[in-house]
Write a structure and sequence with these properties.
Number of domains: 1
Largest sheet: 10 strands, antiparallel
Helix content: 10-25%
CATH architecture: Roll
Strand content: 25-35%
Structural class: alpha+beta
CATH topology: 3-methyladenine DNA Glycosylase, Chain A
Radius of gyration: 15 Å
CATH superfamily: Methylpurine-DNA glycosylase (MPG)
Number of strands: 10
Shape: globular
Length: 171
DNA sequence: TTAGTGATATCC
DNA sequence: GATATCACTAAA
């Protein structure tokens, strides 16, 4: 059992995203109880040229975190009621990250954050050396299949069809 | 298939 | 200041 460190996140999101699948997302609640959930689906968002990435429209207050250090949690409110959780990857000044799209038994990115009690107070926190939330590797080896990303039709046909979605496919 | 929801970005 | 947009979900 090993917590993921900064070296894990400080790589290209296309390397980090598939490796996050099968890892354990651990959340320690305020009352001390611990929730562990296996990550079953991620998506990579990579750079300003990726029209699906929030940073594609340039650097703003909201996307500032994407340009920052890897291992940082980026929480985004979608449609006024759903929190989506991402982790920043790669070098500084490179806007890229990985969206946690689903966990075991928790299909749907907003269900995942709701279950874990994640909200905007986690925005800007780190997965590294954090006592509320972190990621563990328990040695589980996930079979991965890739697919095109969903929910970003607005990004155009090309960016909506790149196979940057990583899904656990264990039998 | 559709409504609901609110932060963000963009346009006055 | 206003409005258009949006990495979704639940209910039907």
């Amino acid at each position: 059992m090993m917590k993921l460190n900064g070296d894990f996140f400080n790589r290209d999101c296309l390397e980090v995203a598939p490796e996050l699948v099968g890892k354990l997302l651990v959340r320690k609640l305020d009352d001390g109880s611990i929730i562990k959930i296996r990550i079953t689906e991620t998506e990579a968002y990579r750079g300003e040229e990726d029209k699906g990435c929030h940073a594609s429209k340039g650097r703003t207050q909201r996307t500032e975190l994407l340009y920052g250090e890897s291992g940082i949690i980026y929480v985004y409110l979608c449609y006024g009621m759903h929190w989506l959780m991402n982790v920043i990857t790669g070098e500084k000044e490179q806007p890229q990250g990985v969206l946690f799209r689903a966990g075991e038994g928790r299909n749907g990115p907003a269900k995942l954050t709701k279950f874990l009690g994640v909200d905007k107070s986690f925005n800007g926190e780190s997965f590294i050396n954090n006592s509320r939330i972190w990621i563990e590797d328990d040695g589980f080896e996930a079979k991965i299949r890739t697919d095109k990303r969903v929910g970003i039709d607005y990004a155009g046909e090309y960016w909506a069809s790149v196979p940057w979605r990583f899904i656990m496919d264990n039998k």
